[in-house]
């Protein structure tokens, strides 16, 4: 099972701890609620002038109604009382990347949740880090 994958030898900067709360949410609200546990996948990819960060779990998922409410509150900047981690991550990234940020969240009850963060026009630079083969 692959837990982390970095598909580029270039580096880029995002604000510190930007995605950590999303991973914590996946563990606490999805995987720990599942009797047999599960897995989280974190994938970073570069495509031309775009960086994609994908966080996906195979936990219990989020109901359609709850997911709709979360998305509406993110768009309308209504602070989420129950989902403060998602709210803070989204707005922190939005402040940093402005219109270059696309934040998508999908979920299916009983199958898991996926968050796709796409950042366009990001400043890339060569990195000394090489992902393990």
Total tally of structural domains: 1
What spatial form do the alpha-carbon principal axes imply? Answer: globular
Q: Overall pLDDT, averaged?
A: 81
Structural class: alpha+beta
What share of residues is helical?
25-40%
What kind of sheet is the major sheet?
Answer: 5 strands, mixed
Unreliable stretches covering 5 or more consecutive residues = 125-133
| Strand adjacency order, main sheet | 1-3-4-6-5
CATH class: Alpha Beta
Put the structure in a nutshell:
With 133 residues, the protein is α+β, with helices and mostly antiparallel strands. It has helices at 20-31, 64-75, 84-97, and strands at 4-7, 10-11, 40-47, 50-57, 101-108, 112-120, 125-126.
Structural account:
The protein has a single domain (4-122), classed as 2-Layer Sandwich (Heat Shock Protein 90), CATH 3.30.565. 29% of the residues lie in helices and 31% in strands. It has helices at 20-31, 64-75, 84-97; strands spanning 4-7, 10-11, 40-47, 50-57, 101-108, 112-120, 125-126.
